[in-house]
Amino acid sequence: MKKMLVLFLITAFVMGAVALAGCGEKKVTIEGEEGAVEVTEKDGEVTMTDEEGDSFTTKEIDVDELGIPIYPGAKIQKGTAAAITSEGTDGTESGAIAILETKDSVSDVVAWYKDKLSGKTSFIDTSMAIEGEEVGMFSFQEGDLLKSVIIGSNDETGSTEIVLSSSSADMGLPGSTE
Predict the structure, then answer these.
(1) Rounded to the nearest 5°, which phi and psi values hold at 61?
(2) How far apart are the C-alpha atoms of 57 and 27, rounded to whole Å?
(3) For residue 140, which of 162, 122, 115, 154 has the smallest C-alpha distance?
């Protein structure tokens, strides 16, 4: 899992670089302590493949593709809406993520999402206070997809951040050991 996190961070960097560089197919090999990773970009899709043949692909998506309600007036943080696919010896896993922000309070956003999502199948509300600040955390299942919403304050921008994610249900919840 640590290896995939490193790959995800590299992908985010590469996606930014590719966006600045323009169109066409590009390939680069990155050598690291854990081996080499080949990074290929074509038509806005970035794929990283390690020496064992495991691959990790990201592609920018429209936030509506997540199938999770969008808080009224919230703005997507540029470059944060992406579909992610991992293929390897353990099979294929996929998911998508987007980060939104609003100037509305965390409490208002939490209340809105709780109202919109509480009737969903397998709805779970694990909201809590962390270091005295409210954090909204909701998840539900829709078909074979596990969807989640995490809401908290961003001290740097003074805004409320909303993280929307959707993944194949067998991927498990964020923070799981699988």
Answers:
(1) -130, 170
(2) 14
(3) 122
pLDDT of 146-176, one tens digit each?
Answer: 999 999 999 899 999 999 999 985 544 443 3
How many other C-beta atoms lie within 10 A of the C-beta of residue 137?
20
> How many angstroms separate the CA atoms of 39 and 91, rounded?
20
* Residues written for the chain: 178
Predicted confidence at residue 21, as pLDDT, reads 46
Task: Of 15-24, 74-83, 109-118, give the range with the top mean pLDDT.
Answer: 109-118
H or E element: which one contains 19? helix 2-21
For residue 160, what are its two tokens? 């409320």
List the one residue out of 119, 117, 137, 118 whose CA is nearest residue 127: 137
* CB atoms near residue 99 (< 10 Å): 20
Query: Structural domain boundaries of the chain?
Result: 1-59, 61-80+92-170
Q: Does domain 61-80+92-170 have CATH number 1.10.3470?
A: no
Location of structure tokens 């779970």: 124
